[in-house]
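Encoded backbone
================
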Amino acid sequence: MGASALAGLVFAIAALAAANVLHFEVSWDLGNKDGLVTWATLFLGVFLTGWLLWWAIMVRPGPRSLWRGAATGIIIAVVSYPVVFTLTELLQRDAATVGTLSERVRGIILVTGLTLMITGFAMTLIMAVVGAVIAYAVNRSRPQAEAAPWMPVVGKGAQLAGVVAAIILALLVGSFVTLSVIPTNARSLVPDGKPGNPAASYEEAMAAFEAIRKDEAGLGLHERCPSQLLTHGHKVARVVIYFHGLTSCPAQGEELAQALFAQGYNVYLPRMKGHGLADPDTLALMDLTAEDLVDLANQSVDLAQGLGDEVAVVGLSAGGTIVTWIAQYRPDVANAIAVSPFLGPYVIPPWATNAANTLALMLPDIMLWWNPTETVGEDAQTYAFPTPSVHTLAQVMRLGRVVEEGARQGPPAVKQIGMLLNSADIAVSNALAQQLIASWRSHGQEVTVKTLALSRLLPHDLINPGEPQADTKLVYATILELLGSPPAGNAD
C-alpha cells in the first residue's frame, strides 16, 4: 500500500498544479461554508481516490505498461470529481443552509456531470500523462512480479479498465469540442439598424411608465417590487437607469436611487420579467430569455430619453450584463456602468464558458436552490427568489456571449464606459469581465475600471444595504465617481 499511497500523493499534487494551470477557481479559505472547493478538499479527494484505484488496478502481477498507467490516471480523474464534490458538500457547507439528503445527493450528481462534460477532458488528459509517468517510474525502479495462476483474470480486468478509460476520454473530449464549436444563437439579440423608439418628451416618458405600472398591477408582485421612478417633476440634465440583479427586484436599488436623486438625477428602476412576484416559490424565472433582457434594455432606454438630456445606465450582475449590451449597441446612451456583470459563473474557467453555456441551454431546465456563493440579508429575503433555474442563468450568459462577440468585432456604441469589479466576488467571473474590457480597449475605447479589494470581503450584491458585510457607502461613492460630475442643472 506504500507505493499506492505515493502514487495517490503524486496524483493529488498534479491535480493542484492542473487546477492552477487550467484556471479552475479553488478557494484558499479552508473555513468557508459557501460550498466552495478548497485546495484541501481537492488534495484530499484526489489523494484518496488515487491511492485506492492505483492499488486496485496497478499493484498486481503483470505488465505495468504506460497504457495501463494512463488508463488508471483517466479513471482516477473521473472518480475524483464526485469524491471532491462530496467532501466539499460535507466539509464546506453550512449545515443551516443545506437541503435534504436526497437534494444534496442530486446536487453532487448534477455538478459532477456538468463539470465533467465541460472541463473534465482537460483534467483526464493531464491525469493520463501523470499515470503513464508513474507507471514508467515504477517499472524503472521495481522489477515485474512473476505471473501467478490467476494473472489472466487480472489481465482481462486491466484490459477492460483500459477500454473503459479510452471510451470515457473520447466521450469527454468529444462533448467538449462539440459544445465549444456550437455558435451562440445571436438571432434577435443584435440590432440590425438604429434600435429603439425613444420618448420625445417628459410627458411621453411618464405615459410609458404609467402603462408599465398598469401592466404590473395584475401580476401579484411583492409590494416593493414594481418598477420605480423618481423624478423632479420634469426632464432634467441627466437620468440614470438602474437594472437590478437576477432573482432580485427594483427594491434592491432603492437607496442607490435616493442617493442619485439627491444629486439631481431622475432615476428609473425597471423590473425584469418574471421577477418581484409575491410568491417566493414561483417558477416565473424559468421563462426569462435573453430576448426579454434586450427588450427591457431597449424599453428602458427609450423611456429614459424623455426624462433626461443624457442617459446613464447602471446594473448589477445580470443587470450588469444588460448594461454591457447597452454599451455595445445603444449609441443614444452617454454612460454605461456595469457592476460585477454576470458573463459567466466564477467556478467555470473562461475557456470553458461557451461549452458551459451551450450545455446549460441544451439540458432540461432544472431549478436550483439559492446560489450558495451569495449571502442574503433578511430584508432581501422578502422579495428575492430562492429558486433560479439553470436556463435562466444560461440565458443571461447567452446575452453576455453575444456582447463579447460583438466587442471582438467592433467598438462599443457608448463612449463613456465604466466597470466596478469585486475581487471577493465568488458568484461571477471577473476574468470574463476583464476579457470584455480588453476587447473594448482593443478598438481604442477607454474603459474606467474600479476594483474593490479582496481584503474587504464584500458580497456579490454590492447594492442592497441589507446585505451582510455590505459597504454601500463605498460602493455608492464609487458609482457616483464613475458617473462623473452631478447634473449642473435641470433642463426645462
Remarks:
- The beta strands are 228-230, 236-243, 266-269, 308-316, 335-339, 416-422, 447-452.
- Residues 258 and 373 are 28 Å apart (CA to CA).
- The mean pLDDT is 89.
